Prior knowledge:
Elements: H1 3-14, H2 26-36, H3 41-54, H4 58-63, H5 66-73, H6 80-95, H7 104-107, H8 115-126, H9 135-144, H10 156-167, H11 173-186, H12 205-208, E1 225-235, E2 244-245, E3 256-257, E4 260-263, H13 269-276, E5 286-291, E6 297-300, E7 304-315, H14 325-328, H15 335-344
Parallel strand pairs: 1-7
Antiparallel strand pairs: 1-4, 2-3, 5-7, 6-7
Amino acid sequence: MNFSKSLILWYLQNKRDLPWRNTVNPYFIWLSEIMLQQTRVAQGLPYFLRFTKAFPTVFDLANATEEEVLKLWQGLGYYSRARNLHKTAQQVAFEFNGEFPRTYAELLKLKGIGEYTAAAIASFSYNESVPVVDGNVYRVLSRYFDVETDIASSGAKKEFTKLAAELLPQGEANLFNQAIMEFGALQCVPKNPDCGNCIFSNSCLALQKKKVASLPVKSKKTKVRTRYFNYLVFLDENTNTLLQKRTQKGIWYNLYEFPLLETEKELTETALLELMQNQPFVTNKVLNIHWYNSETTVHKLTHQHLNINFWKIVVKGKLEKGIDWESAKKMPFPIVIYNFIEKERF
């Protein structure tokens, strides 16, 4: 069986109709690849459509403010992708006159574009014979060829890239790369793949050796950190509130949030009020304080589990730097705060 030909034939018969597959425009392909990193297609597709409507060209994206980009990205997560996206758009627009480089090697010189994204653009837009290697490709190749190399090891990327390069059919890099990624997304899925209805059921080594569930090998475990966030939702006599911008590097950088007290454990109202005495958030007298939540909101990120509580802090008079809710809603928030605002219908 010719692996590459069979895979491409499967792709042509089974591929999903996605907007970035109906173009060779490198701007749209680049957008889709950045958005779909660590994101499912079903989740990423609405964002792609909104972005291409708001920013139909790389110049439109480059000329937007970072806050406009982050607001449109709100809820997609991994916000550093959005910030890097904006910077790359500015580089392409202002240094390259809106033209994306046409080779893998030149694409790598752009800020925020790594080996995977450069290979995707080079092969999808320009049909350059460079392999694309992502999680789907690791899974398909490791199972079909029974490769037990730990994909978290230092040499794995080089080994799998070499294997994928050997499989690339001449002049069909575009089709093959999309085919193997789609096959991993739809057929050779991480858990409980339908091997009985697979085109490779007679030639897949992992299936023959009953190793499908154990491949690919990935030994490193992600260490999860637990944090406790207490958001102070101040309300003055005009129902204005306070917001602050996260300026420290880390999660949600440059997004807005309510004043935050991070603690080692969950707090009672009395403990929170005591802790607030030493904070510079507000000088107004506190009239009332209570818990908004019926229970703690647990927001799970890749490396962190955030236990989030929202506290209603009613104060006397007017807040010096108070902001009305209509203005506040235009700002980019972490999705957990945006959902809270929408739920409470401020």
